[in-house]
Amino acid sequence: MLMENLRKIAAAIALCIVASSCSSIYELLPGGAPSPSPSVKFSTAERDAYLESLTDAREAEEKMRSAYPADMKAAAAEAGDAWEKERENIYSKLKEKLHPSKQWKALSEEEAAWQESRGERKSDASVDDVIVWVNATKKRTLELIDEYYSLEPSRLGAGSVVVYAGVLLGGWNGAWVTANDAAEGIVGGETYNLYSSSGPEGTGEGSALSASDGNSFADGIIITSNGSRFMDLAVTGEAKCGKYESLNTNLVSYINLVKKLLSENGLEDENVHIQQIIKTDLENDGFDEIIVASSNLGFDDAKQGLYSFLAMEKIIKGNIETIVLFKDIEEKTQVGFEQNSYRFLGFSEAFASLNENDANNGFMSKYKLSMAVDVNLDGAMELLVESTQNAGRIIYVISVDKAGVAETVLTNRLY
């Protein structure tokens, strides 16, 4: 069966060369795995330099030609092995470049089909059969090299798959990728770079995606490093940690900031409780932003209502502005507390399903800034925020531009 397929491939090669009419001759391979879509543009100089480096495969192929007719089969098998090695190399490079995407998954399926076909080769194959295999493998390798150098630089996906606290948040592949889309390329065994608020923490290995790992949450990925589970940020590409400096929560200027927020929301008599004040520098421009997390949840001194704020002080056009990133308020009534305001700022269309009523499932939340980190390596930090509530946690990756406009670019929930 394999040799019949290879003969079909050889015929298809000839047809493609003459007519240039087929999208992928390798659809004839067992499994029918699709290949990445072809492109006519590529980085010529870089591609040519890569082709020049394929010396082992080209020398083996030349040896095959010069061996004719004596020892032709052995020489052809050696050439086939050399081109298969180069094909495996370019598969790895392409998968790294495409991950996460549907093309990555298709490429993985195609690679598996090639491996299966290779395993079916018989020792009693004819010389012609082996030569067909050599030509097919060489041609596919050259196609993959063209595909690799045709991709735009923005497709590199600096942040790749993004995981925090064992939850898949999504990814970056030239644009932000939702958790659902990022999940398609995860098979388990991926290497992750690890980060905490203090900086890089080495590397770890990720599991396959699991609907639950005992905590009843979806999109779980277990990251292990040195035999232990890692629960901070993990990305398959690179990230850059930003300034994350904790300040004294008794600073008068930020107590006054919270008092102002309370007054603006009808809670001017409430006591101020600040859990966190973090100094960071989102744009690395030397002008710090200050993040303040304040909530009276868990305290028994509420007079008018319950509140939770995550606010940011930022210099915009020379003025210090206060930006409220998250705000939960419940007013106190004669029968208890009544929710009257939820505001979750900056949801992009990609996460429109996480609407205001669904975002925290009607529960009050406490917020904290876990990290300031540049996930997509654009030079600006994203804010990694945790929302804690009775029903569990929600993780947000928030982008804030120079004008102070906030957008949630990645999110998922941990229940």
Summary, kept brief:
With 415 residues, the chain is α+β, with helices and mostly antiparallel strands. It folds into three domains: 153 residues, no CATH class; 85 residues, no CATH class; 170 residues, no CATH class. It is built from nine helices and 19 strands.
Distance between termini?
50 Å
Class derived from helix and strand content: alpha+beta
Tally of strands? 19
Radius of gyration based on Cα positions: 28 Å
Q: Tell me the β content.
A: 25-35%
Q: List low-pLDDT spans.
A: 1-42, 152-159, 212-217, 337-361
Secondary structure tally, helices: 9
What is the overall shape?
Answer: elongated
The SSE string, one letter per element, is: HHHHHHEEEHEEEEEEEHEEEEEHEEEE
* Average pLDDT figure: 76
How is the main sheet built?
Answer: 8 strands, antiparallel
For the record, the count of structural domains works out to 3
Strand order of the largest sheet: 3-2-1-8-4-5-6-7
Percent helix:
25-40%
Task: Describe the protein's architecture and organization.
An eight-stranded antiparallel beta sheet has the order 3-2-1-8-4-5-6-7. A six-stranded antiparallel beta sheet has the order 10-11-12-13-14-15. The protein has a five-stranded antiparallel beta sheet with strand order 9-16-17-18-19, with no helix packed on it. The N terminus is likely disordered. Helix content is 31%, strand content 30%. The two termini are 50 Å apart. The protein is elongated and about 95 Å long. The chain contains nine helices and 19 strands. Helix 1 packs across helix 6 and helix 2 runs antiparallel to helix 6. The chain has three domains: 153 residues, no CATH class; 85 residues, no CATH class; 170 residues, no CATH class. The protein has 415 residues and is of the alpha+beta class.
